[in-house]
Design brief:
- This protein is α/β, with parallel strands linked by helices and 514 residues long.
- It has three domains: 241 residues, Alpha-Beta Complex (2-enoyl-CoA Hydratase, Chain A, domain 1), CATH 3.90.226; 190 residues, Alpha-Beta Complex (2-enoyl-CoA Hydratase, Chain A, domain 1), CATH 3.90.226.10; 35 residues, no CATH class.
- It has 20 helices and 17 strands.
- The strands form three sheets. Strands 10, 11, 12, 13, 14, 15, 16 and 17 form an eight-stranded mixed β-sheet that branches.
- β3, α4 and β4 form a beta-alpha-beta unit.
């Protein structure tokens, strides 16, 4: 037995050593942690239980047999984050550059299956140079096994991807199929074709950071939802994000004890919307004054700034937020904002997170480019997402709700549960200037002073429709409230809606307007 234990311990030590001291030192020199160091920071102390530590590649092509490592460049297992069970995998760049192999696929697939069977979140730490070329098509097929399980797990358990280094080629599809992607400034990148291939094919000169760095995917492409300044911050952010998510789709998000007064009413809300309906204000400040103190976690903070999507808490309960941002593009909806909003609605619905929508939108952004690129199709995603969502849905119109944007943004017809409005709300079919010209074109053109006549009709239209009372009269708004009352109103409404039961029409699936 002593010899057998000695052999086991030696193999374990070899697995723990990764690619060896020189490669670990090289990893640190790049400002990156090793896979095991990352897991130690992410997981509760002494909670990690590894699986597959001794799995080794069977490939011997192109001299691969001389580079065999226990674990084959990936660490998989179970652990806890703040006492909650999670499944994890972490690619080890010190072993063959973390290159993706058949063994890696088998280990990830195994942990994916166990995570789904156990109903616990899956967290993937990606740091790989790409497919292991020596394995040929087997490495490519191995990606497919992981993608299949990403799709099967979607909407069942939360899936989080952390990009802690390079993520290229087919490897990028797995993070894109998960619920959240977190990138690290300066050390992580994602792209389908790298700078060298682009240079060869198109002649374009671009660096890896310019092509697929954290800022690019957080601000330009929208591929990533979060960006962290370093790996420690990324791992802390992961813990924060998990606190808003349930273990699986059959559970509710965890509740925390809130020390914030549920009846708190901030008088600053009563004056936050400017008297000039063309003036901007920061919707983030509105959210900060309403939700539990320091509970706001914005998603996609750097992409499509004309819309805000976020998580927050009301009396300790997690909620999802959708809001227009009048400080950017007057809060207009466009293609990117539509995608951002629709994705967040769908994500909140699949994990039983109630939705609160703040509306201040003059409509969809006009323009040839928007129309050519399918703003109709993208805008329809918002409608589809709200209509199919069965979680509690509350809307608050703070100012403008004009035309199609009023209908799309959680109106009563989108299966909304409670519709509130502030006295500053302006709910109308179209803008006052356009309506005046449409309704009174002849009277304006034939008037002795057309400009004065047009101004009179605009003022008349605003007086009649630029308020919430017409909508309240016909039941499209449930209640007009003082802005400062918003927090207690939301808390009480969600108390009632927490036991909401709604089922959809039986079907295989609908056709989401992609």
């Amino acid at each position: 037995m002593a010899d057998q234990l000695s052999t086991l311990r030696a193999k374990r030590e070899r697995a723990l050593a990764g690619g060896g001291p020189a490669r670990i030192e090289a990893q640190h020199a790049k400002g990156k942690l090793t896979a095991r160091e990352r897991l130690a920071l992410l997981l509760d102390e002494a909670s990690f239980q590894e699986l597959g530590a001794l799995a080794t590649s069977r490939n011997s092509e192109f001299g691969s047999a001389a580079s065999l490592y226990p674990g084959d460049g990936i660490i998989t297992g179970f652990g806890k984050v703040n006492g909650r069970r999670v499944a994890v995998y972490a690619q080890d760049f010190t072993v063959l550059g973390g290159s993706f192999s058949e063994v890696q696929s088998n280990k990830i697939s195994r942990i994916q299956d166990l995570a789904m069977a156990s109903g616990i979140p899956l967290i993937g730490l990606n740091d790989s140079g790409g497919a292991r070329v020596q394995e040929g098509v087997r490495s490519l097929a191995a990606y497919g096994e992981v993608f299949l399980r990403n799709v099967q797990a979607s909407g069942v358990i939360p899936q989080l991807s952390l990009i802690m280094g390079p993520c290229a080629g087919g490897a990028v599809y797995s993070p894109a199929l998960t619920d959240f992607t977190i990138m690290v400034e300066g050390t992580s990148n994602m792209f389908l074709t790298g700078p060298d291939i682009i240079r060869t094919v198109t002649g374009e000169e671009v660096t890896a950071e310019q092509l697929g760095g954290a800022w690019i995917h957080n601000s330009n492409s929208g591929v990533a939802q979060f960006m962290a300044e370093d790996e420690h911050a990324a791992l802390r952010l992961t813990k924060t994000l998990l606190a808003y998510l349930p273990q699986n789709n059959a559970e509710d998000p965890p509740e925390i004890v809130s020390l914030d007064n549920p009846d708190r009413m901030d008088d600053a809300l009563n004056t936050i919307v400017p008297l000039d309906d063309g003036a901007a204000y920061d919707m983030r400040e509105v959210l900060r004054l309403i939700f539990d103190t320091d509970s706001l976690l914005e998603v996609h903070a750097h992409w499509a700034g004309n819309a805000i999507v976020a998580f927050a808490r009301l009396q300790g309960h997690a909620v999802g937020i959708v809001a227009n941002q009048p400080a950017v593009m007057s809060g207009c909806l466009d293609i990117n904002a539509s995608d951002k909003i629709a994705r967040h609605i769908t994500l909140c619905d699949q994990f039983n997170i109630p939705l609160v929508t703040f509306v201040d939108c003059p409509g969809y952004l006009p323009g040839v480019e928007q129309e050519y690129n399918g703003v109709i199709r993208h805008g329809a995603k918002i409608i589809y997402a709200y209509c199919q969502a069965t979680v509690p849905k509350i809307s608050i119109v703070t100012r403008k709700a004009i035309g199609g944007s009023y209908v799309a943004l959680s109106s009563r017809q989108m299966n909304n549960d409670v519709a509130l409005a502030w006295p500053t709300a302006q709910i109308a079919v179209m803008g006052a200037e356009g309506a005046a010209r449409l309704l009174h074109r002849r009277a304006i053109t034939e008037a002795a002073d057309p400009k004065a006549e047009e101004a009179r009709f605009i003022a008349e239209y605003k007086e009649k429709f630029y308020n919430p009372y017409e909508a309240a009269d016909v039941g499209q708004i449930d209640e007009v409230i003082e802005p400062r009352e918003t927090r207690p109103r939301l808390i009480r409404a969600l108390e009632v809606l927490r036991t909401k039961v709604q089922t959809g029409v039986p079907k295989k699936h609908g056709l989401f307007p992609v």
